[in-house]
Hints:
single chain, mainly alpha, 1 helix
Amino acid sequence: MNRWRVDGTIRILLGANVICALWKL
């Protein structure tokens, strides 16, 4: 279990969602 990898993937997914939301706005 690598917490660093999990945190990295979650941050990337959250970042992508934020970018998509900004683009929709």
